Amino acid sequence: MIKGIALENFAAFKKLELEFTSGINIIIGENSCGKTQILKSIYALTSEQDITSKLLGLFKPHNGKLSGLYHRGSKGKAKVTLEDSSGQFSATEFGSRTEIATSDSLMAITGKPVLLPTKEVLSLLPAIQSGEVTNKTLATLFDDSIIDLCYLLLSQPDTDISDAANEDPRLAQVIPMLVKAIGGKFEINGTDHAFVKGTFVEKSNSNISKGQSAKIYADFKQLKFEKEKSTETSVTMTAEGYRKIGLLQRLIDTGALVKGKTNVLLWDEPESNINPALMKLLVECLFELSRNGQQVIIASHNYVMLKWFDR
Amino acid sequence: MDKSQGDHVLYHALFRDKNDEIAKQTMDNYKMLSKNAIAQTYSDLYDAELERSLDVAHD
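The joint structure predicted for all components is written out below.
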């Protein structure tokens, strides 16, 4: 769990410290106050990649160098420090003219962080999976948060989503909620990317014998995704707001967002492209993930979403 | 939010101080945030709308 972050002479920040809850953290503020920079800083310091290339890949400063991330008019080194709940630190620093950032970490990285950018990326996946777009071109078009997320979404599920839902009571709450909200789920089978209409239904567990009590029988109902017939749609033909919710569904589907496997869920403007009515459900899903031990840090501009959190 | 289930939300409002540097205000109660650009904008809109409807009623 990330306990706090301190930023000094870095990007938009002269000096700023934030302490986080293990539950849900919401960063608000006007444009150009550094909300996204905080999310990217946490992501960089919890990633295992070389810190200099990660900072440059995420922030893409105008000169392509770390000096472009140095807070203008400052003196001393730029520093970013994360502290975890056990009091261990992960830190990086660099001078105004240095090209390599030093890093020091005693933090035990418990799983990969997940950073969801403002844009949906499901529609990019077929092109990236095809291999026709080179890594160099990708790096020119997108920052690391988008590229990393695309590869995470392309990973194959460890288990079937229905099995995952049946094994974890919290996911059994979240997955059907997401699927019900968008009327189906996004699937990747080989090179076939599609939105499949359907819903989760409860099925009785056939392993329970008729001789057992009615209560045991009822408790052992299982969730199963039932497709509607001939209802596969191309990803790009689905509403962009559905694709945003689909990001969460696919991350759970692939096992990238499960208890103990994910470090922290960082989400930049989850409300973008989503109707206010759907925001309520999205907030409920984030609460369920939080109750499952998932730390969440989001940046938001949206009044309706904030009010759903506040109810 | 359901506190009986252990829900906890922290709100971190970022704003520019008198030196034009980024500062923060952290609260676990949304209503207690005084540096809240979003709520302030909605409050201004609500006041303007109220004023407009009163003008219409007065006419």
